[in-house]
Design a protein that fits this description.
The protein is an alpha/beta fold. The chain has ten helices and nine strands. The two termini are 35 Å apart.
Length: 297
């Protein structure tokens, strides 16, 4: 626990003894607030200077969108928590070489977007807006929280012909449990946070599907899925990738790596080639790029 988290933990738990609802509001706000904003790396600058830049309004905040190509044969790249679109830069040249347009974005509170917070509803709104603009994505490649946000959007009508998750989150409740554990929140405060999440984020879902999980999307999402996860990922455990792949059965392929962790996996040449092969050829070519594969069951 870092110093900021330690202070937040003490304040929230203390306030919860006086007012559970007030502390719950504080916990809910903090849950959606990235405490660090990633900057553009020098190696990413040339590529992003060449992008066509746009904006998407999201509840008074502005997401920043980026596009390379003319918009035909679109592939959407979706970043994760405390990250930004540029962290998926290594996928862009290969996709362009294969005739795709590439579309991505900085969510509110991330990268060059405005705002200090973002929710799964924001991810859904941005992805839906880009889907409305470009049509069905030939592929969607999502990292970490971006995977959960992407499947939430697909549950509500967004279409992608092929889907790739890298270090992906399967269960929204996994994020809640990790957050509460990290801040050592008292049980009543944790319950209040769950109540706020159900009430504010998922009021349109059946009670048995709250909080949201990718495992409830298998009837809505019929496309093949490539799941890539590192067995040494300490941020999002490999069990989340295993659950995601298992949910889609023979429509999914699970690829496991070792020693790449949660973020370095995005720049690994073998991972990049595996993703590009899947986007181009589908599941039959997955696993030829030198990373270790495992069955989804």
């Amino acid at each position: 626990m870092n110093p900021t988290e330690a202070v937040a933990s003490t304040v929230l738990n203390t306030v919860s003894r006086v007012s559970g609802r007030l502390a719950g509001t504080g916990a809910y706000t903090l849950f959606h607030m990235p405490l660090a904003r990633s900057g553009l790396r020098s190696a990413e600058r040339e590529l992003f200077d060449a992008a066509q830049v746009g904006r998407v309004d999201v509840g008074g905040k502005q997401a920043v969108t980026y596009r390379w190509g003319d918009g035909a044969r679109p592939v959407l790249l979706v970043h994760g928590w405390q990250s930004r679109a540029s962290r998926l830069s290594d996928f862009v040249p290969g996709l362009l070489d294969r005739g795709h347009s590439v579309v991505t974005f900085d969510a509110p509170g991330h990268g060059d977007a405005t705002g200090r917070s973002t929710t799964i509803l924001d991810y859904r709104a941005i992805i839906t807006a880009l889907h409305d603009q470009y049509g069905t994505f030939e592929a969607l490649v999502a990292h970490s929280l971006g995977a959960l946000g992407s499947f939430f959007a697909m549950k509500h009508g967004v279409k992608a012909e092929r889907i790739v998750t890298i270090s992906g989150v399967c269960d929204f409740d996994y994020l809640v449990e990790e957050f509460c554990s990290e801040l050592r929140l008292r049980a009543p405060l944790k319950a209040e946070l769950h109540r706020r999440i159900a009430e504010d984020l998922f009021p349109d879902l059946p009670a048995e599907q709250v909080p949201f999980t990718v495992t409830d999307t298998t009837d809505d999402v019929r496309s093949p899925v490539l799941v890539i996860h590192d067995e040494d990922d300490t941020r999002i455990r490999v069990t989340q990738g295993q659950r995601l792949a298992a949910a889609f059965g023979d429509r999914a392929r699970l690829v496991t790596t070792s020693g790449l962790g949660h973020r370095r996996i995005l720049g690994d040449p073998d991972v990049v080639r595996t993703v590009l092969d899947f986007v181009a050829h589908g599941p039959e070519r997955t696993g030829e790029a030198g990373v270790r594969t495992a069955s989804a069951d």
